[in-house]
Amino acid sequence: MSGLPIIRWASLSDEQRRDALRRPTQDGAAQLHERVAAIIADVRSRGDAALLEYTQRFDGASLNDLRVSEAEFQNAQQ
User: Fold this and answer.
1) By the 8 A CB rule, do 4 and 60 touch?
2) Residue 3 pLDDT
3) Long-range contacts of range 26-34, CB-CB < 8 Å, 24 or more positions apart?
4) Among 22, 31, 40, 42, which Cα is nearest to 1's?
5) Are 66 and 52 in contact (CB under 8 A)?
6) Which of 1, 41, 46, 55 is the most exposed place for a label (fewest CB within 10 A)?
7) What is the pLDDT of residue 2?
8) Does the CA dihedral 41-1-20-60 come out positive or negative?
9) Cα–Cα distance between 50 and 20 in angstroms, integer?
10) In tens digits, what is the pLDDT along the chain, a chain of 78 residues?
11) What's the CA gap between 7 and 76, in Å, rounded?
12) Cβ neighbours for 62, distance < 8 A, ≥ 6 positions apart
């Protein structure tokens, strides 16, 4: 599965912005729902281990822990 494309909004023309906001076709909606349901079931059964794997897979972030430190909270508020 590939990630979503990055859109640089400021560099788009009005027509390109309209295209970017247009809803995608729902041809693969049933398959998408099946894939999402499988991920949810996996997270429910394996918990944090599954979340860490999906974070790596979809976000490319290798985390050792899902807890957020007080310092991270403070930095996020700034």
Assistant:
1) no
2) 67
3) none
4) 31
5) yes
6) 1
7) 60
8) positive
9) 31
10) 466 788 899 999 999 999 888 877 677 788 889 999 999 999 999 999 999 999 999 999 999 988 989 999 899 987
11) 23
12) 56
Residue extents of the structural domains in the chain: 47-78
Closest C-alpha to 62, from 73, 50, 53, 71: 53
Of residues 36, 37, 66, the one with CA closest to residue 51: 66
- Integer-rounded Cα Rg, in Å, for the chain is 17
Q: How far is residue 66 from each of residues 11, 19, 33, measured CA to CA in Å?
A: 35, 36, 26
The answer, as to whether pTM is greater than 0.85, is no
Q: Say which residue the tokens 């403070």 belong to.
A: 74
In angstroms, rounded to a whole number, what is the distance separating the alpha carbons of residues 65 and 74?
Answer: 18
Residue with tokens 């394996």: 46
